[in-house]
Amino acid sequence: MSLVGIASFLLLLVGLSQSVPPSFSVDFKNDCFRKDGEKFRYISGSIHYSRIPRVYWKDRLLKMYMAGLNAIQTYIPWNFHEESPGRYNFSGDRDLEHFLQLAQDIGLLVILRPGPYICAEWDMGGLPAWLLHKKDIVLRSSDPDYIAAVDSWMSKLLPMMKPFLYQNGGPIITVQVENEYGSYFKCDYNYLRHLTKLMRSYLGEETVLFTTDGASLGFLKCGTIQGIYTTVDFGPGSNVSAAFSVQRHAEPQGPLVNSEYYTGWLDHWGSPHSAVSAKKVAVTLNEILAMGANVNLYMFIGGTNFGYWNGANSPFAAQPTSYDYNAPLTEAGDLTEKYFAIREVIRMYRKIPEGLIPPSSPKFAYGAVKMQQLQTVSEALETISFSGPVESIFPQTFIDLNQAFGYVLYRTELPVDCSIPTPLASPLNGVHDRAYVSVDGVAAGILERNKVISINVTGKAGSQVDILVENMGRINYGRDINDFKGLVTNLTLGNVVLKGWTMYSLSIDQAIDQGLFWATKPTSAGPIRPAALSLPAFYGGAFMIPDGIPDLPQDTYIHLSNWRKGQVWINGFNLGRYWPSRGPQLTLFVPANILSTDTPNNVTVLELEMAPCLLGSCTVEFTTTPILNASVQSDHQQHWPMFGKALL
Asked: Please, is 234 exposed, middle or buried when counting C-beta atoms within 10 Å of its C-beta (0-12, 13-18, 19+)?
């Protein structure tokens, strides 16, 4: 054959190979996945784009790739993209398509978990709060109203995902149907069938769909469905063979898969910080990989519950702002001992990419920032209640008031003289979640869900009672995810049911973003007794990034050690909640992208209980070191054993 003939033949072969479409499938006969016809095993890590600023996505994904991972796993929080019905947001930090494209460009495949329910220690498990406008809705079931909302959401989301499927040239190799449904009290197979049909209709018959449940036969009973590949999850120290035998009960043949191998665990306010040793994680990971199994490390990087996005567990215990998870990459994306221990295990089973690992990001201590009181919440009502007052005989919930997150001020009057201390109570435990009570402008006490249902108050008939109610995050797991917020039942004064309420939905984030507080004159806090409560109030301060220091701004942490509980914003960005008086988290991560080198950086704090400004020192401090494991000041005991799930 001539050289021309050989060249033509080679071009023909190349053309034929390029004409074969990419494929990903389950090979039941050989107990493996097949990628483009070849046997394939994924070693994946979980990363939640919703917990990481967009500017850091590439850095975190590169670090995951350099650890030896060939895939990532991510959730899609429905409520992150559709905060009100029919209004979608996929821009900025919510640009899911950009995130998926970045993963593919770096060389990572994607395991997609689109819900509609995701758990994830995220507010309401990713379900939007507006679903609760139907008060008796049965979430995660065949309830027609729930199904209609799911269908509408998926009709928006899934067509966006279709071009990113592996068979269409994208990175997505598998898609999960629902999430750990076997742990939910509803055993609604029609619901799972509906979701399956829905995903098939948009994503095609060739897409590998899967379910994930705990490695117990009890979870598989209601969590699995015919035609959808069953996977399990379990953590370090587990009996790996026994755990996979549970999967084999549902899938006698096919690839072994641990969809959530726990590198750490979640935290709650008032419970000790969770930590799992690098050695323990590495040992069990080696056992999993030695069996030829596929694995996803949950989490590989946890990130941050910025704003109000943290969830809670039942009995009510809210998760903190940090979702560090004691993961291989810290909340700030820093490399850890666990990262390198995992990398060494992976190295035994697949080739690690060559090249330099992106370093941990530098941090800068901007120091102390002087704060001053701006206004109390009551004084700021006209500024922060954009929708104005709503009057009602009985208190209404956040959802009744079209308020999803944050705070609502409830106002009423004492109906009788209370010259002696009289119980102001929530007999049916209807304060969801924490209420800051004042009478005639004097702080009177705090009501707290499941913990404090009654306080004593004094005052004259007609005295103004203000109750600022904080939504601390909706329950994300179990039967109580339909978690209504606000005053969800009546309050009583002695034996009298309080009536005649005026309610103010507070648009604090919008007011801060528009700089409305900075247009007001600071107010005098007035004298106060040490250790007493103060009125919830806003405090402000500002700092400049130093000149003459290269590579600024840099990441930092804000330390509010002498503050008690509240919310903090920098340049209008809601960093999240702080609660050093309960712990274990004392510092909040401040990503450099929200800081300015050209103009003053405004710090706004909503202190709910007692600011140090009222007792002398009035500063917040920016430091280089996170504190997530401080001792806790609470009798609350961690109610979930590590790696433990329950049938709820």
From this structure: buried
